[in-house]
Design brief:
By secondary structure, the chain is α/β, with parallel strands linked by helices. The chain folds into 2 domains: 2-251, TIM Barrel (Alpha-Beta Barrel), CATH 3.20.20; 300-378, Arc Repressor Mutant, subunit A (Orthogonal Bundle), CATH 1.10.10. It has helices at 30-42, 67-80, 100-108, 123-129, 135-147, 166-177, 196-202, 211-227, 246-252, 279-288, 300-311, 320-344, 359-363, 365-372; strands spanning 2-8, 10-11, 23-24, 52-59, 83-93, 113-119, 153-159, 183-188, 231-234, 237-239, 257-260, 265-267, 271-275, 293-297, 318-319, 348-351, 354-357. Strands 9-10-8-7-6-5-4-1-11 form a 9-stranded mixed beta sheet, with helices on both faces. A 3-stranded antiparallel beta sheet has the order 12-13-14, with no helix packed on it. Strand 12 (265-267) and strand 13 (271-275) form a beta hairpin. Helix 1 packs across helix 10 (279-288). The longest helix is centred in the last third of the chain and has 25 residues, at 320-344. It is globular. The two termini are 36 Å apart.
């Protein structure tokens, strides 16, 4: 099994926190779609004829496209790849774009999983983030999506927003769980250099949330999601049983995937490729047969680090049997010896021959993962 990620780079408005490649445009998208279809044809052999079990259409804002545009893309994918009968097809939407007729069109395109970028139910947060919807629009969008018959609906929330209190965050979570959603992705706000927030931080116009407040919001997220029947299967992802994101889970389990569109990444177990971050350059290069991606071969240490970086974020953790089989005694000894101090500190535990982070460990997961990275040769 393998997956396909399709990056739609277009947005109608710039979110102040966004670090993903995007362009602000409401123009004709036909040149991009033509290039995307050409790229798919050019790279049809990358996955070595594996059956496609997931398609994820993200961005950017995929919902700026018409249903006809989406149908054109998915029909082409279906014609050149072999899709599983129960292929999970996820489509990201901005709440402003959710309309009953549009949702009906998505169902006709066999989209079976909707991801709504809610981010917050509080208008003050949405204004600060520079989202183009308000809380009333978010409620209407979610209700319309559920009423349209989509059983597998996930929403995105952001915590750690400047000015957000613990009570505010609790209210956001409680309101989210009052709907019949099956999945939640909750991300701590990260202020990246080059974003609007990054520039505001440099000028002292905003400040990052206090570490203690950040930890309190994260612990509340874990507690409330568990009480609502959700399982934290990855640090930022919570799903009810049977509703984990198959596509994202495959990323973390080292399943091969092909990324289409500018800035999209691909991985086949032994190499990683990434497309150029330039829409015009991408279109021109694809159409003229020039290189439009870079690649890196992964030696055993890089593959080890890839595995650690993804697996340690999940409920499945580091499978010691897999490590021994794939990375031999050196990798196995390295992991077991290094994990000792983290287990002693209560930051990691051994479950069914797998090393997983405790809730305390998840708070500093980036630091722990960084220390587990095996250094390469000088």
């Amino acid at each position: 099994m393998a997956g396909i990620y399709i990056h739609i780079p277009f947005c109608k408005k710039l979110c102040f926190y966004c670090d993903f490649y995007h362009v602000i445009s409401v123009n004709d998208y036909s040149a991009f779609i033509d290039a995307l279809l050409t790229e798919a044809s050019l790279r049809r052999d990358y996955l070595e004829d594996e059956t496609i079990s997931t398609i994820y259409i993200g961005g950017g804002t995929p919902s700026v496209f018409s249903v006809k545009d989406l149908e054109t893309i998915l029909n082409h994918i279906n014609n050149i790849f072999r899709l599983s009968e129960d292929c999970e097809i996820t489509f990201e939407m901005n709440p402003d774009d959710v309309q009953p007729v549009y949702l009906d069109g998505l169902r006709n395109c066999k989209v079976n999983r909707i991801s709504l970028g809610i981010q917050s139910w509080r208008d003050s947060d949405l204004k600060m983030l520079n989202r183009r919807h308000d809380s009333e629009g978010a409620v209407k969008a979610l209700r319309n999506t559920l009423d349209a018959g989509f059983d597998n609906v996930t929403i995105d929330l952001i915590y750690g927003i400047p000015g957000m209190s613990l009570k505010d965050w609790e209210s956001n979570l409680d309101f989210s769980f009052s709907f019949d959603i099956k999945h939640l992705s909750a991300y701590h706000l990260t202020i990246e250099p080059g974003t609007v927030f990054g520039k505001m931080l440099e000028k002292g116009l905003i400040s990052e949330i206090d570490e203690n407040d950040s930890a309190a919001q994260f612990n509340t997220l874990i507690e409330k999601s568990e009480n609502a029947g959700f399982i934290q299967y990855e640090i930022s992802n919570f799903g009810k049983p049977g509703y984990f994101s198959i596509h994202n889970s495959n990323y973390w389990k080292q399943v091969s995937y092909l990324g289409l569109g500018p800035s999209a990444h691909s991985f086949n177990g032994y190499s990683r490729q990434w497309n150029i971050h330039d829409l015009k350059g991408y279109i021109k290069s694809v159409n003229t047969g020039k290189p439009f991606f870079e690649s890196e071969e992964l030696d055993i240490k890089k593959r080890f680090n890839e595995y650690i970086m993804t697996s340690l974020r999940t409920m499945w953790g580091i499978d010691l049997e897999y490590v021994e089989e794939s990375f031999e005694k050196e990798g196995y000894d390295y992991v077991v010896n290094l994990s000792g101090k983290y287990r002693d500190y209560g930051l990691m535990k051994l479950e069914k021959n797998s090393l997983v982070l405790t809730n305390q460990g998840k708070l500093i997961s980036d630091n722990i993962i960084s220390e587990f990275m095996m250094p390469g040769k000088d």
